[in-house]
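Please fill in the sequence for the structure shown.

STRUCTURE ENCODING:
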């Protein structure tokens, strides 16, 4: 491996400072005088220059030594990192112990500075203990620094082992050995990241077929957690939305044009369902079955859908207009995964759904836009305020029965205000019709129609009352 340019420069400066510092070493030693009672420092100009060069040389040497350590494996790094410290520790202990034994001016000066002698062994032991504490403290710091990448390695492998990945670069240390480990961990992290991105992308694509809210109802976080037979029963609100008379009105369109025409309206309806917290369970040709956690969310969505379709109708004058027919019902709904191991499909099953689909017949018969059951009305929050009226009672073949109500918020303000003002008269007419008082019912609905001539439910009830009375 080629040596870095910066390392070559450091070696050059190290050699350039080493040679003169060695030459001037005699002036450095000449400035240090042992007196027997201490040391006297008196450096001349060359001695000071020699000291400066020696300090600079040691700095360059220290940097080069650190770079040398980074090229080694961990075991050799620990050995060579502690080798100089151990040498200095040994020399220090030698001078502390030898100063009390050996003769000479230098050792006498050391004894004087350290206040030790053969008679004062206590001070010599204290200096030895102090030097040992310093040695082990520095040794601990070196081990901590050198082994820090091992701790990071342990943390990173534990994280990767748990499947926790990071977009940040993995960094262990500057050692050559750890750089290789870094590269391997980066590759593992990258593979995990790619796999995680693939799973996320798969989940995003799967949400086009299995809504995220459906997974939440089942207590699952990903499509990969789904198993055949998973099921749960929840209190929920269903919303059926039919786009009425498309097939009849679009006889002039080709099959492809009709298909695109239907999708253009579904692209308006579906986002409004999600906006108010619901999800589309299935598309039924010209309609949608959606699920909401609360009836007020379904009601808000229904009103928004009707207004959005009115706007779309006005913007597409060259195409046939459509009218939404929305039925809302609330009750216990079972969410589950049905099919077989090789072909599983999410679905919802409930009498609530079956009844809501039958409510569509009343919707079409009465010419209403949004109707809802008494169960949905009862589950609405007390503070929820909107205009509605009683439309009648409905009983399914299975014996499931409920009162049906019409939401008036979907009409233009002028018509809505008139219907609100005539609400009591209309509901009295419905009750009269149900109790067989057809003359009174006919009279009441005629009065409603005199104010709102295009009120389709009143028109239907009026005609039915006339039929019962055999009046043409």
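FILLED IN BY: designer on duty
SEQUENCE:
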């Amino acid at each position: 491996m080629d040596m870095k340019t910066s390392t070559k420069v450091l070696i050059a400066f190290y050699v350039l400072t080493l040679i003169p510092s060695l030459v001037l070493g005699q002036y450095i030693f000449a400035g240090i005088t042992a007196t027997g009672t201490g040391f006297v420092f008196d450096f001349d100009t060359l001695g000071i220059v020699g000291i400066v060069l020696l300090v600079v040389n040691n700095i360059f040497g220290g940097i080069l030594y650190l770079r040398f350590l980074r090229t080694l494996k961990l075991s050799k790094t620990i050995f060579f990192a502690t080798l100089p410290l151990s040498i200095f520790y040994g020399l220090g202990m030698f001078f502390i112990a030898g100063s009390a034994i050996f003769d000479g001016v230098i050792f006498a000066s050391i004894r004087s500075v350290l206040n030790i002698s053969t008679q004062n062994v206590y001070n010599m032991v204290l200096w030895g203990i102090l030097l040992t504490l310093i040695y082990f403290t520095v040794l601990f710091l070196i081990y901590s620094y050198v082994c820090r990448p091992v701790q990071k390695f342990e943390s990173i492998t534990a994280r990767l082992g748990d499947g926790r990945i990071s977009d940040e670069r993995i960094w262990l240390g500057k050692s050559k050995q750890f750089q290789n480990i870094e590269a391997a961990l980066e590759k593992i992290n990258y593979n995990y990241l790619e796999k995680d991105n693939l799973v996320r992308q798969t989940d995003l694509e799967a949400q086009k077929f299995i809504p995220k809210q459906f997974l939440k109802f089942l207590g699952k976080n990903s499509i990969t957690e789904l198993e055949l037979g998973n099921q749960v029963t929840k209190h929920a609100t269903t919303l059926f939305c039919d786009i009425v008379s498309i097939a009849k009105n679009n006889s002039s369109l080709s099959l492809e044009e009709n298909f695109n025409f239907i999708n253009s309206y579904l692209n308006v309806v579906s986002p409004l369902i999600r906006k108010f917290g619901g999800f589309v369970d299935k598309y039924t040709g010209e309609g949608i079955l959606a699920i909401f956690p609360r009836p007020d969310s379904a009601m808000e969505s229904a009103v928004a859908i009707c207004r959005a379709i009115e706007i779309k109708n006005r913007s597409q004058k060259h195409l046939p207009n459509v009218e939404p027919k929305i039925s809302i019902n609330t009750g216990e709904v079972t969410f589950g995964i049905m099919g077989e191991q090789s072909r599983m499909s999410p679905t919802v099953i409930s009498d609530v759904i079956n009844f809501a689909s039958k409510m569509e017949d009343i919707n079409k018969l009465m010419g209403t836009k949004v109707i809802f059951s008494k169960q949905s009305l009862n589950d609405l929050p007390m503070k929820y305020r909107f205009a509605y009226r009683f439309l009648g009672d409905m009983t399914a073949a299975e014996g499931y029965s409920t009162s049906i109500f019409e939401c008036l918020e979907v009409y233009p303000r002028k018509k809505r205000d008139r219907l609100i003002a005539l609400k009591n008269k209309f509901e009295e007419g419905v009750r009269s019709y149900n109790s067989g008082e057809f003359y009174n019912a006919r009279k009441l609905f005629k009065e409603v129609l005199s104010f709102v001539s295009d009120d389709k439910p009143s028109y239907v009830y009026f005609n039915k009352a006339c039929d019962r009375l055999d009046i043409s």
